[in-house]
Amino acid sequence: MALMATGCSIQVRSEPDPSIGKDTMLINADHGNPLFDRNFNPYIANARTASKWMYEPLIEVNPLDGKRNPWLASAWTQPDAKTIDMTIRSGVDWSDGSAFTAKDVVFTFDLLKRFPAMDVKGAWQHIDTIERRGDHVVFHLKSEDVPSLTIIGQTYILGEQHWQKIKDPTTYRDPNPVGTGPFVLGNYSDQQYSMDKNPRYWQADKIAIKHLILPATNTQLDTVTRGYDWAYAFISDVQGTWGAASSTNKYWFPPGGVIGLMPNLTKAPYNDVNVRRGISLALNRDDIAETATEGNLQAAAQTGLILPNQQQYVNTDIPDQGVVTQDTKAALQSFAKSGYRTQGGKLVKDGKQLTITIMTANGYSDWLRAAQEVQRNLTAIGVKVTIQAPQPAGYQQNINNGTFDMAMGGMGNGDVYQAFNSLLSSDFYQPVGKSTVNNYERYRNADTQKLLDEYRATTDPAEQQQILDQLQVIVYDQLPVIGMYYGGLWGLFNTSKFVGWPSAKDPYMAPQNYDSAPLLIFSKLRLRDSKAGQAILEKSKDQK
Length: 544
What we know:
Elements: E1 24-28, E2 59-61, E3 68-70, E4 73-80, E5 83-88, H1 102-114, E6 127-133, E7 136-141, H2 148-153, H3 160-163, E8 183-188, E9 192-197, E10 211-215, H4 220-225, E11 230-232, H5 239-245, E12 249-252, E13 255-263, H6 273-282, H7 285-293, H8 328-336, E14 341-343, E15 346-349, E16 352-353, E17 355-359, H9 365-379, E18 384-388, H10 392-401, E19 406-411, H11 416-424, H12 446-456, H13 461-478, E20 482-488, E21 491-494, E22 498-499, H14 517-524, E23 526-527, H15 531-539
Parallel strand pairs: 1-10, 1-11, 17-18, 17-19
Antiparallel strand pairs: 2-3, 4-5, 5-7, 6-7, 8-9, 9-10, 11-21, 12-21, 13-19, 13-20, 14-15, 15-16, 22-23
Helix pairs in contact: 6-8, 7-9, 11-12, 12-13
């Protein structure tokens, strides 16, 4: 979503509905098509966003840095690389007053096994068997698989007594959900629904919000003018639009991934590391980042890490933390190693100009601006660059099937192992024409796969870091994806009623208002006028 700037100046003001109380949050988080469908099953497509604020995971993971917060699991251990022992939280009730127990956890995973279409995170790709030991649930894994803790931990838990009679949970729409989360369903229509605070919530004392209101219609202008307390959207000239509409409108756009160029490693010349390095060295990443993100985010490192989120994992032997500076002379030298020479302003090999086709997705304005900047950089050294922009569905199909030359795309996420595994694992390798869900560039290397397997097999943080150091070198030297700039998470907040939002100074959670991230954020927010709220304001007066 983007609110585009125009050549003239239009004063836009936020006009909150005065009938909405101070303890009620108006949230731009769910979108009708154009109307809402009453679907609160968190395991099927097109479920309402708020379904994941009623059903909770075992572990609440921060997408920024991968930090795991105990949730319905109060603790866990990994006694060895093939075992996860979770302690299930006591004192938790379902919203109808029935007790939540370890039986519900086992039931949920059994349900995912019986109905694989529900297992959207692939938990049973890792689990061999599950057993309940009192208030403990023990997961026996198929192999040495330490990182699977995060995948298993993010499973949303369903109540056995509410779901055991459902014949087909893959189609059940769960119109009257019973969850463990901080809110229950209130008034519902196909144009707007509300959520009310769950008085039985296991940490109800931490929830200052009494009601949530989620409208179905959220236009770009509406995001600025309606008086939302929380929205998630990229807005052009955010300070001049969102920021100017209200003195209490704040924003935080942390990096959530690396946006870069994905070369198809099955095709020449993209399978030539000297060509990839030449392209990388020719790029002015600062200009690309400035143009693509309108100055909101920075040039990215060529290590696969998201900085500063993952600063603790940086391999200090890599120069400049992996940031590659434009060096056209070095770029031409790299191209020359593969036989390319400058002739008449063109970069030529065997009489043919080096020609590159970059695919992006139609409507992804930041990607298009980045691709155009790449085109300018490469044209300047004699490379012919063509940009293709199919519709998003066509783009996705092409990268899944490997039917592209070079494509805009991304790498990296908060879970550092999963980031490298998704990028580099041979387990995801598929020949061109056959679909894959990761490793779109078709990278395959036995030594790299060995490192990924070794990481899975160790619970020692020092050994894990040694492996991460080597994986960063691989991404830096081999350039399976050419990183350019950080992609943002577009958090828009209003502090007139609620304070305690995540920020650069307190990045306790990504600012997204989808998936389970809001669960932790809801527990941190305080009424602005309360004593706790005033203390937060004193501590972070410059929150943005």
